[in-house]
Amino acid sequence: MATMGNERDFLILTNNPLVPACMEGKGKYTIRFCPEKSYREILVMARDMVYAGHTLYTHPLSGSVKPNETPYKSVIVSVEPHGFDSDQGEIMANAIAVFDKFTPIGWNLNERILADFQLIDYTLLAGAINFDAAAGISNQSTRRE
Amino acid sequence: MSYKVVHYINQFFANIGGEEMAHIEPELRDGFVGPGMALNNAWKGEAEIVKTIVCGDSYFAEHEAAAKEKILGWVKEIKPDFFIAGPAFNAGRYGYACATIACAVQDELGIPVLTGMYEENPGADMKNKILIVATANSAAGMRKAAPVMAALALKMMKGEKIGASCEEGYMPNGIRKNFFEKEIGAKRAVNMLVNKLNDKPFTTEYPMPSFDRVAPNPAIKDLSKATIALCTSGGIVPKGNPDHIESSSASHYGEYDITGVDDLTSDKYETAHGGYDPVYANEDPDRVLPVDVMREFEKEGKIGKLHNIFYTTVGNGTAVASAKAFAAEYAQKLLQAGVHAVIMTST
Amino acid sequence: MKLELGFTQINDIQFSKECKVDNGTLYVDPEAVKAFMYEDDDVKAWVKDFTFDVAKPGESVRITPVKDVIEPRVKVEGPGGVFPGVISKVDTVGSGKTHVLRGMAVVTAGKIVGFQEGIIDMSGPGADYTPFSKLNNFVVVAEPADGYQDNKHEYEHAVRIAGLRAATFIGELARDLTPDETQVFETYGIKEGIEKFPDLPRVAYVHMLQSQGLLHDTYVYGVDAKRTLTTILNPTETMDGAIISGNCVSACDKNTTYHHENNPVVKSLFEAHGKTLNYVCNIITNENVYLADKQRSSDWTAKLCRLLDLDGVIVSQEGFGNPDTDLIMNTKKIELQGVKTTIITDEYAGQDGKSQSLADADPLADAVVTGGNANEVIVLPKMDKVIGMLDYVDVIAGGHAGSLRPDGTIEAELQVITGATNEMGFNRLSAR
């Protein structure tokens, strides 16, 4: 059983391709990469796990980039359930309520901007768990253009 | 040309009499009556009260549907530019009547409306549906209330942009609006803190959403001996909705016997709720009120038994005060029936 | 600790070969500023070129995308220099004398990421919402060197340093001036303060710093606030640039370096200091993404409030979403220590104003000052001149597809305007 707070207990839920590209196999955490899921669906997945007793390690609304701007979201929950925490359940429920209040924008985001949104999400995630973001980028398996 | 206004007041402000005359039926008079004069004067000819409707408070409370029908009929015919009611100050039934009839005029006839009353008047519960000017708690506040109501009403008639609640004098209605204060935020924060430190009154600029937290009861020690009831705000009712629970803003709840029912089927049950897509609930009402699973638990001995009555209402826009009243009533029935625990489902 | 600020009002900025301040006009040679910025190796490595412009109040000018705004200052007496740990050595600042060029700012602009945001309109309806429309702005537009796409960290750092260096260069011109006006700010040691103001409530300022990661950072004496524990500052340290902004996201409620230098909470607390309260100190705390960090930081904030025997605090916030949780955690824990709070925030209540304003809430937060609803929609007219670039307006926060209309007007949420709903309470904007 993984100890709470230990890197082995980090389960990274993400739809951001830069996260597995930079971080896969570089630490003791587990990455669940779900490219087919939307920002909101990542939040819902995290919420359901928190409701089921998994510990929430990072804030679901990390970053001041508004949830109707970026398509990417990464959240860390525990691999093991350690028991339901009502404060964390509330944080997750509130995050989804926040997502829903923003007016959909309907941008056509070009590759450059998508790459920037990936970078921000990845960097905030890396910063939260002391992963060297810059090293991750220069070591990534599939380089961006 | 000035805007045409219809004014609604009660028997007391029409100088007919007090409680002893509260039974009078609605009547229609020409021009302004009583407090209408102050409004008319404040409009200086830009708007004018063409008709005044007078109705007894008891009559309105006891014959709401009939009163509404009659008044709406008159207003429809007069076709005013604006409908104004009260102010009602702290008179509870008058406040309720002002808010209710104003809301009906706004929703059913599409005419802009305004009323005014004291913040604790029960009619003020409708402040998120119509604009209500906050007044003092007695008719002595008329001199202050009339100009505020008149000014806001005129703005609404002219279709001008309505400012924030504190600028215009209406009760906060849940719609946040920006405006410029006189002082910068940091200075306001220091002043607020100094008042708070000195136990002086202060007003927060953003009231936190109010939480009605309920401390959970101690856990049930032995579920296999417990009687469990099912309750819902998801609107599950016997097919045909025999008690006519409204699809929104429910005014009552229903109680139905499920003795011998093992499964809620689509031919016998449905939802009365108008706030969500009913297809899945109507297909299998157990999805909202899980009688089938509870019966399984009952058979397996996981629970003692399922209570033979379920309580149901529609949570769609139903006033918190109404919902509380329903629950307070049927909670007593549940207690008397010896129910140990309730599973309350929502949608 | 005691600091004297000497203000010289700047009413105009002129490009000239000679650099000086004379009779309220700043004369500055852009080439000299450029050379001074390029003395830094990171700036040399990541910025291909700089262009310069001046924007004055009332002009039909739009500056976008804005990265940072900085007020030029210079330390003339006492230990250390401005922007300690970044531009000057790391000596503790906040005492002695500092000269300020008031009524102007250095504005850094230019894209860093593709959705970069931040608009300053110098006239029109947008100007009412940003404090920087009232300043004479020396605008530095940075153009990235090749390869910056894969080195955004380095590039953001280079532009941040470049802006601070430009402000330092201009601030130096104030060194030998005789100020138009001087003001003295002084706070006392714990015991000294109690003896001086035995009957006044003891108040501190809990200053929350944005600290989430790339484009969301704040630096204290050069240290990334993400890596700090909750600690104490003398209020005057902020006036010498002890805190600088590395935050480029959420234009309306990010605290620029200018906001930190001219912190309105510090200013307002000093105005009340010795009269209605005893201003003890600033407590700085961060807004990290990792939940255990939030818990630790807010626990420490409450602990310090208790340890300092405070009666009350003002809590200010920076940013959207994640920091709401820190704000509520801090407030709740401080109140539970018996210390009274007033908090400053802004709102995201939706375009219709009907949604829940904050991502978190607690009944103990019963004294709230708001900087307004950032989702409210505003239409900005076309300006005759744009400094920076407009092609990113469609992808700035609060903008939407078609934000930039063919006639040059912009329809967007208040979010796009730099400093519009500032959560230190810099502005008069509010909401009900």
How would you describe this structure to a colleague?
The complex is a heterotrimer of chains A (145), B (347) and C (432). In chain A, 41% of the residues lie in helices and 14% in strands. Chain A has helices spanning 18-23, 39-51, 86-101, 111-128, 133-139; strands at 10-14, 30-33, 54-56, 74-81. A four-stranded mixed sheet of chain A has the order 2-1-4-3. In chain A, helix 1 (18-23) links the parallel strand 1 and strand 2. Chain A is flat. The relative contact order of chain A is 0.22. With 347 residues, chain B is α/β, with parallel strands linked by helices. Chain B folds into two domains: 3-168, Rossmann fold; 223-345, no CATH class. Chain B contains ten helices and 14 strands. In chain B, helix 4 links the parallel strand 4 (82-85) and strand 5. In chain B, helix 1 crosses helix 5 (142-158). The model of chain B has no long low-confidence stretch (mean pLDDT 93). Chain C is of the alpha/beta class and 432 residues long. In chain C, 22% of the residues lie in helices and 32% in strands. Chain C is built from nine helices and 26 strands. The two termini of chain C are 39 Å apart. Chains in contact: A-C, B-C. Chains A and C meet through helix 3, helix 4 and helix 5 of A and helix 8 and helix 9 of C.
What number of domains of chain C? 1
Would you state the CATH class of the largest domain in chain B?
Alpha Beta
Rg calc of chain B: 25 Å
Largest sheet of chain B: 6 strands, mixed
Largest sheet of chain C: 6 strands, mixed
The most extensive contact between chains is: A-C, 48 and 49 residues
Oligomer: heterotrimer
**Which bin fits the share of residues in helices of chain B?**
25-40%
Task: Please report the total strand number of chain B as a whole number.
Answer: 14
Number of helices of chain C: 9
- CATH architect. name of the largest domain in chain B: 3-Layer(aba) Sandwich
Strands of the widest sheet of chain B, in order across it, are: 2-3-1-4-5-6
> What average pLDDT do the residues of chain C reach?
94
